[in-house]
Amino acid sequence: MENARSDPQVTWSAVDALAEGWLGIHGEARSPALAEVLANCERAGLPPIAVSPCQGKFLHLLARVAGARRVLEIGTLGGYSTIWLARALGAGGRVVTLEIDPHHARIARENFALAKVEHLIELREGPALESLAAMEREKPEAFDFVFIDADKPNNPRYFEIALRLVRPGAIIIVDNVVREGGVLDRSGTDPRVEGSREVMRLMGQTPGVEATVLQTVGAKGYDGFAMAVVGGTRT
Fold first, then answer.
1. Among candidate residues 112, 96, 66, the one with its CA nearest the CA of residue 162
2. Beta strands 166-174 and 70-74, pairing class
3. What predicted TM-score, i.e. pTM, was given to this entire model?
4. Cβ-contact 197, 183 below 8 angstroms
5. Under 8 Å between Cβ of 200 and 177
6. How many whole angstroms separate alpha carbon 192 and alpha carbon 206?
7. According to the model, what pLDDT value does residue 4 have?
8. By the 8 A CB rule, do 74 and 150 touch?
9. pLDDT tens digits, one per residue of 104-146
10. How far apart are alpha carbons 98 and 131 in whole angstroms?
11. Mind giving me the DSSP string for 78-97?
12. Which sequence spans correspond to the domains of the chain?
């Protein structure tokens, strides 16, 4: 444990690995399908920034608790989190996921087929703000669960639009809002930090929204989720 004491990341990763084993997450995350999904992402040169297995299972369980049938994901990357969410859907459910990068989108579609969930997922390519504007014009059935994990400067705008696309009681999760404590930086020089700071302020100022932030450590380092429930009653 000496190395763990000198390097917190060693401890965080080791606890993640222990939890994955004890809770059965390791078997799910390293199933032939998901193992091939991760390998496919690596071969394709995608950045290794997808959620960890523990985080993926956390999102999966939240979506199940919410009884989510309609899920919106902003930021697909290689589709790893998308697959966790698709596996949580209620009967007749669907995930709509948005991705700006055509290469990422192609790999994600391959991965959905590998995981045999392609029939549950609609992937829309293009800038997320444009895709969201098109969705608003279409007036789709309301979403039950939203996961925002895209370009951080636009987090406030994504959140504002998501509010108009969800049902009362829906859950909205924004990833990477703590940024290893960078959210404390008030200089305004990092637009990613400013996007995280602003979306949290927005959550706190929006009537009818109950929100919190959960700091996380693990295989992906030190960061955190912001979580909002839409239509909650303020205390």
1. 96
2. unpaired
3. 0.95
4. yes
5. yes
6. 21
7. 52
8. yes
9. 999 999 999 999 999 999 999 999 999 999 999 999 999 999 9
10. 7
11. TSHHHHHHHTT--TT-EEEE
12. 2-230
- Tokens read off for 151: 């370009």
5 has pLDDT over 80: no
Residue type, 181: G
Q: Which amino acid is it at 34?
A: L
DSSP code of 125?
A: E
- Among 84, 80, 75, 101, CA closest to 38: 80
The answer to whether the beta carbons of residues 131 and 98 sit under 8 Å apart is yes
Fold of 2-230: Rossmann fold (3.40.50)
Strand 221-230 versus strand 166-174 pairing type: antiparallel
Q: In this structure, how many other beta carbons lie within 10 angstroms of the beta carbon of residue 51?
A: 22
Which token pair is 37? 């999904």
User: What pLDDT does 17 receive?
Assistant: 94
| Local confidence band at 30 (pLDDT 50, 70, 90 cut-offs) | confident
pLDDT score, position 27:
81
SS3 231: coil
